[in-house]
Amino acid sequence: MDALLLARVQFAFTVSFHFIFPAFSIGLASYLMVLEGLWLKTGRGVYANLYRYWLKIFAITFAMGVVSGIVMSYQFGTNWSVFSDKAGPVIGPLMAYEVLTAFFLEAGFLGVMLFGINKVGKGLHFAATCAVAIGTFISAFWILSVNSWMQTPTGFEMGANGQFLPGESWPAIIFNPSFPYRLFHTVTAAYLTTAFVVGGVGAWHLLKDRANPGARKMFSMAMWMAALVAPVQIVAGDLHGLNTLEHQPAKIMAMEGHYQSHPEGAPLILVGIPNSAEKRVDHAVQIPKASSLILKHDANAPLAGLDTIPEDEHPPVGVVFWSFRIMVALGFAMLGVGLWSLVARARRSLYDWPWLHKAAVLMGPSGFVAVIAGWVTTEVGRQPWTVYGLLRTADSVSPLDAPAVAASLLAFVIVYFAVFGAGTWYILRLMAKPPEPHESATLAGPVRTAGITPASQIGGTH
């Protein structure tokens, strides 16, 4: 392996670890906001119990997401210094805005959210929870704006030294053509990821005790999210695909396995083995003209293939082809579980169908697999470019020797599996414990906000 490939593998490894934590914390922060809001509105202790239950898990997830994100940012200077030099004037301010807005907001209110349950009023604590949830969304906004600009660069000028410089309009950079689609698709994926984790945990405890009110409530809420959001996500993915066809046609060609052009309607290849050497998909199972129908809304519409693009600009078809299918398959599996839960709910058997609960447990980690598969599709499908069509990946890497990159990669692998493996193990231990079986409405309310603690509260008057 050369330094370029090792640097790509290192970034892929670290970002894969990092991505699973924000994908969970974005949705979990919003779920905590909903739980506390419902508790304040209804006064039912089951919501307070669930809030405390998931707050511990959120704290660990958030911490691991922050730590893994810091490591990623360092790689822009170590392994990708040429990219940082050329694209820094555009992406640098956007990443700084993420720190100045989202991270400061999260950091400012996270302490109140975690440690202020019995120290501040209910309204202020709920405001802190809302601030953290909003902060996670703002963080996604800026990071996805950076990524989307790399996919569909607009609003820039080329400097005399080859740098990408901001043009007259920052909104043109921020709201680049793929950004709205990528933002909605990714945030919705985060909500679905959280829904299936919560649903899987609830189902696990329902299999042990169907009468547990906390398990029943979290499973019900998660299945509502799955049933309502999964179809929305499928539609959002389709719209995102149409946007990608317009701006990154080579990526769509790789996703569809279209090595050759189809002037009279392209087939939809369901499964097969991409053969880049022979420029075909072996053992393909396909639906005639269905790809043209989906992408052009016309079964006979022509679709260009990779034969219309120089070979040195082809993405790695095999990786993109299969990662896309994994993502789509999991999306429809989520839809299936959501619809199954609606049937059970209509028959008043949501808590009484063990096979539904077992399916929900099995689908618990599906969101993480789906978001990683989606990320692989997006990033590998962009190759061989870092800034699409303008800056090649081979021209973005730092002038490093392969042994140096290999050594840091090995260190990352060892440390990541040790540290984040321990964190994940602890989260699973917390999830294995059932939520409080009895309702309690003692979530918040200051014992004493100022002054001297009354003697009656510390054991007497003498």
From TrEMBL:
It is found in: Cell inner membrane; Cell membrane. Its main location: membrane. The keyword Transmembrane applies. It is a multi-pass membrane protein. GO terms for molecular function: electron transfer activity; heme binding; metal ion binding; oxidoreductase activity, acting on diphenols and related substances as donors, oxygen as acceptor. It comes from the Bacteria. Coiled coil: none annotated. GO terms for cellular component: cytochrome complex; plasma membrane. GO terms for biological process: aerobic electron transport chain. Keywords: Cell membrane, Electron transport, Heme, Iron, Membrane, Metal-binding, Transmembrane, Transmembrane helix, Transport. The chain crosses the membrane at residues 12-32, 53-74, 94-117, 124-144, 183-207, 219-236, 322-343, 355-376, 405-428. Belongs to the cytochrome ubiquinol oxidase subunit 1 family. This is Cytochrome ubiquinol oxidase subunit I. The lineage of its organism: Bacteria, Pseudomonadati, Pseudomonadota, Alphaproteobacteria, Sphingomonadales.
